[in-house]
Each structure stands twice: as C-alpha cells, then as structure tokens.
Amino acid sequence: MNDTDQIEVTTEVLEGTTIIKPIGEIDLSRAPSLRHHLNEAQAAKPGTLVIDLAEVPYMDSSGVATLVEAMQIARRNKSRIILCSMQERVKSIFEIARLDAVFTIVENREIALET
C-alpha cells in the first residue's frame, strides 16, 4: 500500500463504545486500510462499534464489503455495529443493496451513542 491507498481514520473510545470515523472516499484502493482500522478496533471486542460516515462522500462495493465483513466479525464477537451520519450518496448504495435492513443506520452520532 502506498500513501494514496491510506484513508485517514480517527478512533475514539467512550464507555465501552468504539467510534471509528473514516475521512475520504472508500474505494478499492482504500478499503484495505479501513479494514485494518476496523479489525484493530474489533480486536478489543467493544460492546458497540459506531462507524461515523459523515466525512465519506463516496463508497464503492469494496467499501460496502468491508463493512459487511466488519458486521460478520461483530456478530461472532457478540457485539454490534451502528452506522451513522451517512451522506445521501453513500446511503443510497445501502438502500439499493437493501443493506439498510441488515445494518443499524441512524441519522447522527448522538443517536448512535444512545442506541
């Protein structure tokens, strides 16, 4: 991976909830970097993993697959994933693929932390 393949990700832990916030487009070249950050967060087996997508203007199928993989890991760990703050372009991908019925998707971070 070179620098253009990296995605900036912030991680925050609040009372047993880990919040991951990727910044930038998630495409085929950047999905492995996001996967790495998600795997690191899930290694600690948080009760809830919130993925804040406010700063993700675009996500292709590899990004979606990365989140599906994270969901599968969460289920094995008996934890849960909440997606929040999706931009319309990203949200429409989840709706078209009917993944909005699989993932818990909420409007913003505050709601995610209360859920």
What does this protein structure show overall?
- Helices cover 38% and strands 23% of the residues.
- The protein starts with 7 loop residues before the first strand and ends with a helix.
- The protein contains four helices and five strands, in the order ββαβαβαβα.
- The mean pLDDT is 94.
- It is an alpha/beta fold.
- It has a five-stranded mixed sheet with strand order 1-2-3-4-5.
- The chain has helices at 31-43, 61-76, 88-96, 109-114; strands at residues 8-14, 17-23, 48-52, 80-84, 104-106.
- The protein has a single domain (3-114), classed as 2-Layer Sandwich (Transcription Regulator spoIIAA), CATH 3.30.750.24.
- The radius of gyration is 13 Å and the shape is globular.
- Helix 1 (31-43) packs parallel to helix 2 (61-76).
- Strand 1 (8-14) and strand 2 (17-23) form a beta hairpin.
How does CATH name the architecture?
2-Layer Sandwich
The first-level CATH class name: Alpha Beta
Using the CA coordinates, give the radius of gyration: 13 Å
**What is the number of E strands?**
5
Task: List the total number of helices.
Answer: 4
Supply the number of structural domains: 1
- How large is the share of residues in beta strands? 15-25%
User: Kindly, what is the distance between the CA atoms of the first and last residues, rounded to a whole number of angstroms?
Assistant: 36 Å
Shape: globular
Could you name the key traits of this structure?
Transcription Regulator spoIIAA, 4 helices, 115 residues, 23% strand
Task: Please give a quick description of this structure.
This protein has 115 residues and is of the alpha/beta class. The protein has four helices and five strands, in the order ββαβαβαβα.
